[in-house]
């Protein structure tokens, strides 16, 4: 609802020590322009109107145009199989190639930077992915990724996934890009919490 959206925005701005969306846009402007980020904030308001899987897909589609990159992923942890699985991937050529190669399902035990962010619960940024021997070979060689930013994606039950943005250009991201991605992760977590609360409400049969 509009009131819920306003509360979400106010909560996230408070976490960032900001008073307005414009201040937030100016702080995070890097690859994305201030206008791009303000557009992102407006489009993220649509996230709460769909289910969680739809929210993740919507967020990846929004972010791929804001960052002007080849791929954005929202990975969630599957404890039964001990894997990180994409519940949202941008509809791009590299995103589709990732699915063809099976790189949308990652065993945590196999390592890689997505698994590292999930396990360490820390953000990550690299502009030389091709030189990172900890990264999966398929990401470096087959997808041709050169720059990455990734942040933990938390939902009400705890650390549950990773939000990942990837570019084929080296040295593509700066620290404000990481902070912007963390902002989006906060938003998604609030959407997940809201939907978890709604799912727990008794149905009104009247």
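Q: What amino acid sequence fits the structure above?
A:
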């Amino acid at each position: 609802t509009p009131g819920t959206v306003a509360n979400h925005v106010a909560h996230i701005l408070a976490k960032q020590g900001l008073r307005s969306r414009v201040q937030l846009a100016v702080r995070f402007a890097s690859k994305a322009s201030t206008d791009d980020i303000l557009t992102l904030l407006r489009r993220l308001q649509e996230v709460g109107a769909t289910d969680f899987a739809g929210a993740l897909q919507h967020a990846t589609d929004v972010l791929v145009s804001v960052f002007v990159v080849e791929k954005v992923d929202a990975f969630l942890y599957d404890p039964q199989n001990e894997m990180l699985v994409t519940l949202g991937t941008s509809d791009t050529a590299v995103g589709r190639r990732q699915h063809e190669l099976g790189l949308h399902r990652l065993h945590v035990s196999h390592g890689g930077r997505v698994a590292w962010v999930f396990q360490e619960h820390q953000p990550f940024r690299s502009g030389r992915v091709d030189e990172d021997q900890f990264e999966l070979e398929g990401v470096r060689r087959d997808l041709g990724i050169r720059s990455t930013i990734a942040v933990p994606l938390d939902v009400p039950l705890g650390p549950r996934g990773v939000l990942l943005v990837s570019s084929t250009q080296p040295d593509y991201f700066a620290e404000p890009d990481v902070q912007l991605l963390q902002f989006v992760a906060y938003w998604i977590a609030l959407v997940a919490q809201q939907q978890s609360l709604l799912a727990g409400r008794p149905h009104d049969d009247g």
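Q: And what stands out in the fold?
A: The helical segments are 2-15, 21-28, 34-44, 52-67, 93-100, 113-120, 137-142, 175-199.
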